[in-house]
């Protein structure tokens, strides 16, 4: 048999996966409370890509194993990263473009893991064909089996690649990945696999009738391959000898089917038909040599057929005297489907043996979406329950302050004008917390935090704006030649999220004003409490009233009720922490549902999980609220009995009113301290989110810049090709020399643009301003989880993107979307303040 053909490999440009993958994964899977570090896996993946795409790959099984491993890793990672999050500009060159003296090759850049996977899959099929073709050195039994297996695998992969254009983000694929090319390659590899089965059958000395039927199928497969390879859209791509070889093999296997069928005739003593088939075999084999352009094409079978026909003619002349029928009257050899041994092998889910996913801990995208949605539901319930407790506590504090409790019932061993013990304790608490100075410092620090976030957001919007302006400028200049998707169709979600970030900042500024107003209202009381017992004593007026006090039993009852109030508040703080820190396993139920049903019913599973986890805590919340109701009723009754009711007017003296003002100042101080701590954390967390947002926009702009440069090269190449095709008119010959007729030259399908001089770039009107450097370091911490939000607080709640929200169910990106969109990850902002730290993330 003759040598086999193999497909050329695609060439990839170097891409650093380290920083982009780290940014993408940390933005999706990491939180500040539970950072996910996949640095080792990312480094290994980057190293694996370098090895798999090395220019020194040999035609061997180990080289195939490298490609298998990288393909499996990309396929696994593709299932765990939303397509619109990928901003890595994967650039691959056309496998069939040979370049030119001027440099340049047809290539395509798409920021998509699907595109990277498809290109790797093409290279796997190409290398399989190369290994299969190179392995036929001695045509040993093992080599033939391996080659047949590889060619069938290669055919199956090329067949699957017919849908590769869907991964190009709406762009036209390079010729090697067009449906016509991969379909032709699939047919060619299948025909060569059938050829190997013919060779194996001959070596195994199978029955001649079987071998003849195998040859008929081989001829049919080569005819199909030749028909597809001769299409106008693809025939110029193949190497010069490909079409002649395939055409020659089609004829050769037609001849071989006659050759082996002649053996069957000889065995049946049908000598006349045997001679006719051998004559036909020799005639077609000579045609095969002519078609292929190879003088010794299937020469061994020509020699065998010549010997056989000579012997058959001799036997017929001396013994059988049969009439040799015409070739046209010969019965065709049956095309038996069972003789079509070569079949495309479907692409398995995993190509490598014992594949180990480097990102095994990362869940599939659908599971991550379900977990994010469930986490949002859990946060909403958490906020609701905590808000119930805090509203109840605020109501209880206001009731006690209005009754001047517990100060009014405390013993005044130092006299009527002595500072009550509860007021002393409040003053100590304010002093230990830093007093008024600490609040003023925190309030004064807020503008700097706000300005930092505004600068990051301004820079992100500037990068986005300049990229769009550059695209619009080139579109206006090049018109229909500028074929890429316009920026305004790709950056819509970025703009929407930037506007929402801007809205969050504005709401936060309004919340700052609420904080300042509350501080101004209670500043005098907080200042006096910050001065300790001396400051409080100076603030309290002398007691000049004649208080009418009730029974000692009512006073003792009030004291016991105050102790119960303190216990209630302590228990409520513990309950609140339990609610905020509630965690349960989200990963396992959703993974089990996906494995069992093939889909996830997130609402049903989430409701069941949350209900089971929060049921005991909800019961405790209900008991706490009911206990407060009974305590308030008892306090009111005993207070009326102890102090007595006075219809109309304020029953509190000036001293009692001052003590109530101090009590309210203490409560305001504690609230302000918590709000300012959470406000500071809010701005710091927002900085991290904005840095991540800015970084994604930077990746988007870089990918668009790379695509722009590729398209500019194509436009320049087309312009150069058009110029080269306009040949100057021929110079008139001298009068004494007759002018020869000009021959029409056929322009090549692909030509390359002249390489620009070193240091020179595209024309000035192609230039665009590069994105500015980020004002803050790009090594930002990962995004934070969603904070709690309850009514009555000024800071706006925000949902981090994309850790605690399911952006994909509501805003799915188009299937052909080439560039990333920022997920819609915000809860509606409210004019309410932060009041506590973010919850712990779910256990993974």
Automatic annotation (TrEMBL):
Q: Does the keyword field hold Repeat?
A: no
Name a single GO cellular component: endosome
- Stored Pfam families: ALIX_LYPXL_bnd, BRO1
Locate the coiled-coil region(s) and give their ranges.
446-477, 551-585
UniProt feature, compositional bias: Low complexity: 739-753, 800-809, 822-838
Q: Which GO terms describe its biological process?
A: mitotic cytokinesis
According to the UniProt entry, which residue ranges have a biased composition of type Pro residues? 727-738, 810-821
Matching entries from CDD domains are given as:
BRO1_Alix
State the UniProt keywords alphabetically: Coiled coil
Question: Which positions fall inside the BRO1 domain?
Answer: 3-396
Renumbered residue ranges of the record's region Disordered: 715-844
Q: Does the keyword Coiled coil apply?
A: yes
Q: Which PANTHER family does the protein's record reference?
A: PCD6 INTERACTING PROTEIN-RELATED, PROGRAMMED CELL DEATH 6-INTERACTING PROTEIN
Q: What is this protein called?
A: Programmed cell death 6-interacting protein
Organism whose genome encodes this protein: Orchesella cincta
């Amino acid at each position: 048999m003759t040598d086999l053909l193999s497909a050329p490999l695609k060439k990839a440009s170097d891409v650093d996966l380290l920083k982009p993958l780290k940014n993408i994964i940390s933005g999706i899977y990491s939180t500040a409370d539970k950072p996910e570090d996949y640095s080792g896996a990312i480094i290994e993946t980057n190293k694996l890509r370098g090895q798999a795409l090395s220019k020194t790959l040999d035609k061997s099984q180990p080289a195939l194993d490298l490609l298998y491993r990288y393909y499996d890793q990309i396929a696994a990672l593709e299932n765990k990263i939303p397509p619109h999050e990928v901003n890595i500009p994967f650039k691959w060159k056309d496998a069939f473009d040979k370049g030119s003296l001027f440099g340049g090759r047809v290539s395509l850049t798409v920021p998509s893991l699907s595109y990277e996977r498809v290109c790797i899959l093409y290279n796997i099929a190409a290398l399989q064909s190369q290994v299969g073709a190179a392995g036929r050195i001695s045509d040993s039994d093992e080599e033939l089996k391996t080659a047949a297996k590889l060619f069938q695998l290669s055919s199956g992969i090329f067949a699957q690649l017919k849908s590769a254009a869907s991964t190009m983000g709406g762009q036209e694929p390079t010729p090697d990945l067009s449906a016509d090319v991969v379909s032709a390659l699939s047919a060619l590899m299948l025909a060569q696999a059938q050829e190997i089965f013919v060779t194996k059958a001959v070596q195994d000395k199978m029955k001649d009738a079987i071998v003849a039927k195998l040859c008929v199928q081989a001829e049919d497969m080569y005819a199909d391959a030749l028909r597809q390879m001769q299409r106008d859209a693809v025939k110029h791509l193949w190497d010069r000898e490909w079409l002649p070889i395939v055409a020659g093999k089609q004829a050769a296997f037609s001849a071989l089917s006659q050759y082996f069928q002649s053996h069957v005739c000889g065995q049946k003593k049908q000598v006349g038909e045997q001679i006719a088939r051998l004559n036909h075999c020799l005639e077609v084999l000579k045609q095969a040599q002519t078609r292929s352009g190879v003088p010794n094409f299937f020469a061994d079978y020509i020699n065998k057929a010549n010997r056989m026909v000579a012997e058959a003619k001799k036997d017929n002349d001396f013994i059988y005297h049969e009439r040799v029928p015409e070739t046209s009257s010969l019965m065709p050899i049956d095309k038996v489907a069972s003789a079509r041994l070569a079949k495309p092998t479907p692409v398995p889910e995993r190509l490598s043996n014992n594949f180990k996913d480097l990102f095994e801990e990362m869940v599939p995208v659908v599971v991550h979406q379900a977990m994010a949605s469930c986490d949002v539901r859990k946060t909403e319930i958490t906020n609701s329950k905590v808000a119930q407790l805090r509203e109840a506590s605020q109501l209880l504090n206001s009731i006690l302050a209005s009754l001047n409790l517990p100060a009014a019932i405390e013993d005044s061993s130092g006299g009527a004008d002595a500072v009550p013990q509860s007021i002393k304790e409040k003053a100590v608490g304010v002093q230990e917390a830093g007093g008024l100075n600490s609040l003023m410092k925190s309030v004064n620090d807020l503008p700097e935090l706000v300005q930092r976030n505004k600068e990051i957001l301004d820079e992100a919007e500037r990068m986005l704006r300049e990229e769009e302006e550059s695209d619009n400028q080139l579109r206006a200049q090049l018109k229909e030649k500028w074929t890429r998707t316009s920026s305004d169709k790709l950056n819509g979600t970025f703009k929407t999220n930037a506007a929402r970030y801007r809205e969050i900042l504005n709401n936060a500024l309004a919340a700052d004003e609420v904080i300042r107003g509350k501080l101004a209202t209670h500043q005098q009381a907080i200042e006096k409490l910050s001065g300790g017992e001396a400051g409080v004593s100076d603030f309290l007026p002398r007691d000049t009233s004649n208080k009418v006090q009730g029974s000692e039993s009512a006073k003792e009852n009030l004291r016991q009720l105050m102790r119960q109030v303190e216990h209630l508040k302590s228990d409520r703080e513990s309950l609140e922490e339990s609610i905020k820190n509630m965690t349960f396993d989200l990963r396992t139920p959703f993974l089990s549902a996906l494995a069992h049903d093939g889909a996830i019913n997130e609402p049903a599973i989430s409701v069941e999980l949350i209900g089971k986890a929060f049921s005991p805590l909800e019961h405790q919340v209900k008991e706490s609220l009911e206990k407060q109701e009974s305590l308030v009723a008892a306090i009111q009754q005993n207070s009326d009995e102890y102090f007595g009711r006075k219809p109309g007017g304020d029953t509190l003296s000036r001293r009692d009113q001052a003590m109530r003002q101090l009590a309210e100042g203490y409560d305001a101080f504690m609230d302000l301290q918590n709000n300012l701590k959470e406000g500071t954390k809010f701005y710091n967390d927002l900085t991290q989110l904005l840095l991540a947002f800015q970084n994604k926009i930077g990746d988007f702009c870089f990918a668009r810049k790379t695509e722009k440069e590729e398209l500019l090269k194509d436009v320049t190449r087309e312009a150069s090709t058009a110029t080269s095709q306009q040949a100057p008119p021929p110079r008139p010959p001298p009068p004494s020399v007759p002018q020869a007729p000009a021959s029409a030259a056929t322009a090549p399908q692909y030509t390359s643009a002249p390489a620009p001089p070193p240091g020179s770039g595209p024309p000035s009107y192609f230039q665009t301003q590069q994105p500015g450097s980020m004002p803050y370091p790009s090594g930002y911490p990962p995004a934070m989880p969603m904070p709690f939000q309850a009514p009555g607080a000024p800071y706006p709640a925000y949902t981090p993107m994309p850790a605690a929200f399911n952006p994909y169910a509501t805003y799915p990106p188009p299937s052909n979307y080439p560039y990333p969109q920022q997920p819609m990850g915000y809860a509606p902002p409210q004019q309410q303040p932060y009041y506590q730290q973010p919850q712990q993330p779910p256990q993974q």
